[in-house]
Amino acid sequence: MHRDAPPSHGHSLRGASRDVRARSIRIAGRRSGTRPRTASRRGPTHTRRDAARRRRQVHCRCRRLDAPSRRIARRERTLGRPRCRRSRAHRGRTSLQPPLHDRSSGTRQPQCGGRRRRSRRAGGVRNHRCRNSPRHRVARRPRSHANRNFRVDRAPAAGTRRQVASRSMTTLWTPRVDAVESSNMHRFLTLMGAVDTDAARRVALADQGEFWSAVWDFCGMQGERGNRASLVRESGPRGTSYFPDARLNVVDTLLQVREGDTTRDAIIEVDETGNRRTTTWGDLRHEVAVVTAALRNDGVGPGHRVAAWMPNVRETVVLFLAAMEIGATFTSTSADFGAHGVLERFGQTAPTVLLASSHYSYAGKRIDLTDTLAQIRAELPGLVRTVVVGECPDDATPWADYRGVAADGPRPRFDFDHPGTILYTSGTTGKPKCIVHRAAGVLLMHLKEQQLHCDVRRGDRVFYFTTCGWMMWNWLVSMLASGATIVLYDGSPTHPRIDHLWDLCESERFTLFGTSAKYIDAMKKNGVEPRSARDLSALRTVCSTGSPLAPDGFDWVHQQLGDVHLASISGGTDLCGCFVGGGPAKPVRRGE
């Protein structure tokens, strides 16, 4: 049959022209009252083409996208290319793909289509548009934000985001050889027989029990470790058990006696008005002992909770240590929490003893807490005693009178898994949830992070701007176990001047300055120059956490503070520790 001849009814439409085919289909549809399911208004050939196109879209969204898919692709676009996630051949590839145009050569790079076709833009020359071919294949990478900094198989075009990412990893600081050799990390690697931290990590993964035993010994954990292995694999929900035979009291480690430290400062307390109060190691041990005796007189022991609604002052640290000594569980919130926020947390833990302050100061203002304290006490019926620092109500006990007769003899010892503290989730998805942390496990983790990753040593002076409602307060108190002096600060970090904390850094000779990425960004935006008129030569480490530190923040620290180790650490309330720590024996790279 001639290609343009009209077909007879019932004959095949395969050879008909486009217009005749479409007209015949419409007529057949009107006669039957329905439109054939296998054909569209454009005809069966177009139907087949549309079906093929849809099948290709199901497997690969990179070539032709409908409107919703184009919106998704725009959100997922990286370096000018939408990411293909549905094609079997391309599944698992990251968005790190070459741009459509190579700006250096002016040539168009291949697109993803999966088949050869004649390209109009290529001037009628066949153009293979599939990046999955051997010629155009891009190396597979695991899906990770950090992989933007990795080298790819082909050179990036000038000005692309990959070049910007590679520039952001510039080395800003390299430790001196003598500093590396004297660091705790170097001594620990030598003990493990590892040449670097990568080798030590491989050793730790191969034998985790041996690794944690080495950390116990190196960091000076006090107590009986037991005869069984440090890590025991068990069935059930827990799966593992660390130091199952250990017996210890964490206060033996936190307040261990070191030669010549009786008159040395253990706590330095400073507020925003400049008031300063110090506590020696001898005084701290005595005060913890008498407060521990007072808690025993109130019947507090293992299984009870002791709560503090306090500013960041010495009394909070003393109550924490006393609760740890008798095996009670300690929990705290910041003094700036309102009654509702406090009751949402303490209402779940039902404390036996509550320590509170009658007031606190912030940004030059004195905030009275007397009425709020009365409301909180009324909603906590399980309270046996309320101890108040400052102006004390008649039915409460002043802190100065909360004393007992210190007991002689060794402190009681508990299992490694004995509960120590309760922290709370943020409460953004409902009521804050309680998280119970074991005392010994958290302390051992803190010792590793502080001595190895922050190079904290005996005699250091450690400052971290925090409140009692943040896990970094627990992290700061654990510095006592390394023999360091902790500096407590209560008030606004920018009052009376925005650079007020750097004055403290000079006067108190901080060796570690802990803050947040937001604070560093504020210093940069306000043009603060800490070293312009200050002697910060004692400062060795700056820690930043709370949020990722921007590359500009890295620049500011090393431009303004000089030869310091910047550790952009990251952790969480759910582990009361760090996922990411510093490396004092390794270079610091911008944005890493």
Detailed description of the structure:
The protein has a seven-stranded mixed beta sheet with strand order 10-9-22-21-23-24-25, sandwiched between helices. The protein has a domain at 247-589: Rossmann fold (3-Layer(aba) Sandwich), CATH 3.40.50.12780. By secondary structure, the protein is α/β, with parallel strands linked by helices.
Short description:
The chain is α/β, with parallel strands linked by helices and 592 residues long. The protein has a domain at 247-589: 3-Layer(aba) Sandwich (Rossmann fold), CATH 3.40.50.
Going by CATH, the homologous superfamily of the domain at 247-589 would be: ANL, N-terminal domain
Unreliable spans are: 1-18, 27-42, 58-65, 76-83, 86-166
Helicity range:
25-40%
- Gap between N and C termini, in Å? 73 Å
Mean pLDDT: 81
Question: Which percent range describes the beta-strand content?
Answer: 15-25%
Helical element count? 18
The CATH architecture of the domain at 247-589: 3-Layer(aba) Sandwich
Sum up the structure in keywords.
single chain; 592 residues; alpha/beta; Rossmann fold; 7-stranded mixed beta sheet; 28 strands; 19% strand; globular; disordered N terminus
Strands, helices and their partners?
Layout: H1 18-32, H2 44-59, H3 67-76, E1 101-102, E2 107-108, E3 116-118, E4 126-128, H4 161-167, E5 171-173, H5 177-181, H6 184-192, H7 197-206, H8 208-219, E6 231-233, E7 240-242, E8 247-248, H9 250-254, E9 265-271, E10 276-280, H10 281-297, E11 305-310, H11 314-326, E12 329-334, H12 339-349, E13 353-357, E14 359-362, E15 365-368, H13 370-378, E16 385-389, E17 397-398, E18 414-415, E19 419-424, E20 434-438, H14 439-453, E21 461-464, H15 471-477, E22 485-490, H16 500-507, E23 512-516, H17 517-525, E24 541-545, H18 551-560, E25 565-568, E26 570-572, E27 577-580, E28 588-589
Parallel strand pairs: 9-22, 11-12, 11-13, 12-19, 13-16, 16-17, 21-22, 21-23, 23-24, 24-25
Antiparallel strand pairs: 1-2, 3-4, 5-28, 6-7, 8-18, 9-10, 14-15, 19-20, 26-27
